[in-house]
Amino acid sequence: MSKRNSLLGLQPQQMRHLLFAAGALLRLLLLAYGEWQDSHMAVKFTDIDYKVYTDAAERILKGGSPYERHTYRYSPLVAYFCLPNLLGCPFFGKLLFCCVDMAVALLIEQVLWMIYMERQQQKQQQLQDKPLTGRQCESIGGGENNSSSGNMSSTSSKCSSEEYPLHTFLLPSFCWLFHPVVATVSARGNADSIPCLLVLLTVAAVRARKLILSAVLYGLAVHLKVYPVIYGVPILLSMQRGALGLSQQQQEQQLLYLLRLGSPAMAATTTLNALLANYNASAGRYGFPFVFESYLYHATRSDHRHNMSPYFYLLYLDSVAPVKGLSVALLLPQLLCALLLGCFFAASNLEAGLFLETVAFVALNKVCTTQYFLWWLCLLPFAVGATDMKKNTLLQTGLAMAVFQVACLFWLFFGYKLEFEGKPVFLELSLTSAAFASSQMGLVVFFSHKIRSQNKTRRAEDGVSVPSEAAALERKRV
């Protein structure tokens, strides 16, 4: 094992197991602390949504509809997940959501490994069995920012059979497992980690070229939470452009041209069928309340409380003197910005494109609460992995995330003043909301620049550097 792949004197696999075990322990401690705080403090640790889930599950046990519970605006599946809460295990839902958290981290690691292997295969194809220079050998052996463990390609194994790409488990650990927002949201009893898991399963299925499975998973993700609908166009464009780790020569050899044209249509059809199946099952049982609360409500939702949105103060004024169509009009800049980002970046890096799209979507959403950040935090490791991951870049990434966290703390400070102390801090809170949205859009600008720079570098390496070195070798032979 090389020195570069040792960390704190531990082998990579040992460090990986230690980090994941620490992540699980952190969540167990938060669950225990939450029970204590709920019993001893006026401000409860448990999210109000958890009580809503449990109350809805109680309605189901009594033979009713979960939508009989006021403010239940989720898929009926969430209420079914929380049925054990009423069967002698009141913390079951929280434990389930924390387990999903851990599964998300493992899935992030798996997809990072898939990206790494695709990159290795592309390099191997581009070299076309030419003798490797020392610099190429070092690059393929693990010196780049994409990572893996397990079955190395034959070319990379010639360079270093014992390399273990550290970022495949370090990124999900520090971007997800130990992120305070992620751990706290699930331990408090919020279910937003479940759609995150389904989105990542969809991405993994797309990467594995399992078309039908990816479409079914995507349909289920949209059924459970509406927001993944924004991923549809970028995913289809990614399929159509063949941006799934195959070189142009591989596509021609495997006659993938027609498949590239047909895959998006087939995926869209399968997704629609999956959505309709879920819709018919739920609507047939619970009727129009399911349709309105799960889907239609979110298009017209206008919330001036518990809202981190830059439109917070505007919606507050609108609640006093309503402006017709304001809530719907605010969707247009949000959707336009999100879709442009997703479509632009998805062809070269699907996961990073989805990350940028989601950050913009959340930052410009007319309603924004803490759990929404999970939607893009689960994609953050891919955005970091799409940069050059040099020391300066990682430091800049940490600084950008620190600015986001500080802005969040400022908002929480003024939000507490308003919600719990009843102080008239609307102006301060509106300014803080604008600054908070700016910090998120700053992440979009930062990662857009870094990812584009790295894409240019890779294209130069793939299209210029490798062929030029191969040509130089040919000239020497002649």
Automatic annotation (TrEMBL):
- What's the EC number here? 2.4.1.-
Q: What class of enzyme is it?
A: transferase
Q: Which GO terms describe its biological process?
A: GPI anchor biosynthetic process
Chief place where the protein resides: endoplasmic reticulum
Q: Which GO terms describe its cellular component?
A: endoplasmic reticulum membrane; glycosylphosphatidylinositol-mannosyltransferase I complex
Q: Where are the transmembrane segments?
A: 91-116, 215-237, 257-276, 326-347, 359-382, 394-414, 426-449
Q: In which pathway does it act?
A: Glycolipid biosynthesis; glycosylphosphatidylinositol-anchor biosynthesis
Q: What membrane topology term does the record carry?
A: Multi-pass membrane protein
Task: Tell me which InterPro entries the record gives.
Answer: PIG-M
Enumerate the GO terms in the molecular function aspect.
alpha-1,4-mannosyltransferase activity; GPI mannosyltransferase activity
Q: Where in the cell is it found?
A: Endoplasmic reticulum membrane
Annotated function: Catalytic subunit of the glycosylphosphatidylinositol-mannosyltransferase I complex which catalyzes the transfer of the first mannose, via an alpha-1,4 bond from a dolichol-phosphate-mannose (Dol-P-Man) to the glucosaminyl acyl phosphatidylinositol (GlcN-(acyl)PI) intermediate to generate alpha-D-Man-(1->4)-alpha-D-GlcN-(1->6)-(1-radyl,2-acyl-sn-glycero-3-phospho)-2-acyl-inositol and participates in the sixth step of the glycosylphosphatidylinositol-anchor biosynthesis.
Q: Which PANTHER family match?
A: GPI MANNOSYLTRANSFERASE 1, PIG-M MANNOSYLTRANSFERASE
This chain belongs to which protein, by name? GPI mannosyltransferase 1
Q: Which organism is it from?
A: Eimeria brunetti
